[in-house]
Target: PAS domain S-box protein
Amino acid sequence: MLPGHARRVPGVDRHGHRPLAGRASRARAAARDRAGLGRRRPDGAVSGEQSPPGDAAPGPELEIAGAFITRSLDGFFVQDEDGRLVAVNDAACTSTGYTRAELLGMYVLDFVEITAQELGHHWDIAHAGTMQVTPAIHRRKDGSTFPVEAHLFSHEVDGRRYLAGLTRDISERVASVRAMSEAQRRLEERAVESAHHSEQVAGLLQAVIDAAPDLVYIKDRQGRYQYINSAVAELAGVPQSIAIGADDTVVFPAIAEVLRATDREIMETGIGYEVEEYPEVDGEVRTYLSNKAPYWGANGEVVGLIGISRDITAARRDQALLRHAEARWQYAIDGAGDGIWDWDITTGTVFYSHQWKAMLGYDDEDVGTAVVDWAGRVHPDDYQHCLRVIQAVVRGEAAEFSFEHRMRTKSGGWLWIHDRGRVMETGPEGRPTRLIGTHTDITERRRAESEIQELNRRLRWRADHDDLTGLLGRAAFIERASAVVEQRRADGEALAVLWIDLDSFKRINDSLGHKLGDQVLQVVARRLQSASLPTDLVARLGGDEFVVLCPRVDATRRTSDWAERVRSAMAKPVEIDGLQLTVTCSIGLVESGVADDGITQLLIDGDLALLQAKRDGRNRVVKHSAGLHAPQEERVALATHIRSMIARGEVVVRYQPVLDLATGAMVGAEALARIPGPRGDELTPAGFLPHLEALGMLPDLARIVVNRVCADFATEPGLGWVSVNLASEDLADPQLPNASRARSPGAGWIRRA
Model:
């Protein structure tokens, strides 16, 4: 609000009307020239050659600012307190379609979709000296609109205040947000589809973890348990249902403070570590070796920890006994059941226990007392590793060793051995002179581990691949394709993507059954793999949609020819159980350069090209171009308009007379539905039925048309019979006949074969 004046909305007088054009007086023009926003040249452009107060010549800063505004790609507008434009740059004219002379005679409300109250609000904020960044809608001379981001600021000269703004067209940004929202919707649909499979995998993993003897648990940032396996519940004596959501004051109250301290350190530092913890079990304090690691949230912050704890009480007890026991015999007692060896490094002789020999199937006389009796039975692939580990201990670089290797049995087979040894005696210089160790047969354990690894491999494969076709699934494809895109950006090479959709596959499923449809999909998958190189990524995104990524495009592989070969291969007849089917496909082709967006944008572009191929008649390849985005936006706008018309019941019913050819008399009529178009025209069924089908609003149209016809029938009984075109799903609606009778009790339904 200006001093000494009642506040009024710029561009609107005290009666709520815009001032007449004649109010732009010379005094106002002089005030505008005195404003620090530049003069208008004779041609109406913004100039930086504004004279400061006094006789001083304009400074270089003002010239630079004027030149910047004049040449800026962003629109520049200056309005006075009446809301009239007093200065604009070339970009402002280009973006709105007005000439400079036309703009300088206009008010802000003439081309900005804003109320007078909102404009006044912006003036109040600017008067307080605050820079504003606000979205707005500008209207071009041709009536079309476009979104902008406006940066507004105010400047006062000689008691007159001016509001200036730099505006940037953000149409592409808005379109990108819409496209990303659609991609997110499709991803969410895919997540729902895979939920059942994920539950099965999760159940299997849960069973494996619950069977483990180790304690497995997850805590949140506040130390509350989010998950525990059966071993934790059994140790704590607390049911899982109670432990989940509780902290250690409930689960392990005796050591809660100690656990909380170690957990807090992990949360704060983000670094995992190993720690020994001492819970009391049945009155006995036991030792658990806990490996804890932080896990991170989507925002990069630590949101909790994951822990695995193993009961090492027995191991610690054994270690204490070993430290106080006699070398060979005490070690033999502790290692009962294992093979014992005792190596005198000074003499080079080795003692091998009876169990050591029997483990490999040898009799006592089959094995001597030399190192070679061991070394000669080690698997050739393991020997060098064994030698390096043992030599490190012999050189005094380590006090003990523990590793796994294979040894040959008397029958010629191989056993997996866990070989452990330690220094028991040293010489005057501290060099080891005696090593004692054990051999433990771990063959069964290794076999079990191998089976678990194979199970995990199969689980990983199933998580990454489509069960029906064996192709990559959507999530795995996105992950691998993203890595390829990044690599192509790094090496400066291009790639290509084919988005493939089978034509009329739903008809095959509906008419011949899902079993045969699945067989068709398997044939299609094999053909795609045959038409692709080993380096290509081939995936099934879901249903009858497939995608192929060519990671490198060069002169030897023209993408258009490649796409056409794929289309031709897919169009060959498919023979299943003596039935020959023709399955064609539509393909959207996208080529990516170095500066292109990631795989998500490539898939969006491929989908647009695919839709265009469908519209062009199917069974063809369409290459993506920038021009495909505009029709997509128009279709979205049209679909929105049609939804609005149906919701408001704004459907026009035209009647086409049906004449008796013999008499020329009207015997009935056919009802024709029309929907008012966004430009004042009428949309025919060809223009609105595809959108209503996609929106699931065909039943709504049917009810509106039938009710309208019944109402007309009631007032014009002379119409005779009226034919209304309905879809099969409309006829299945049991409420439709009842609704029509309610609107027109005299109406009846005629069943026609």
The chain has five domains: 64-176, 212-317, 339-448, 466-628, 631-752.
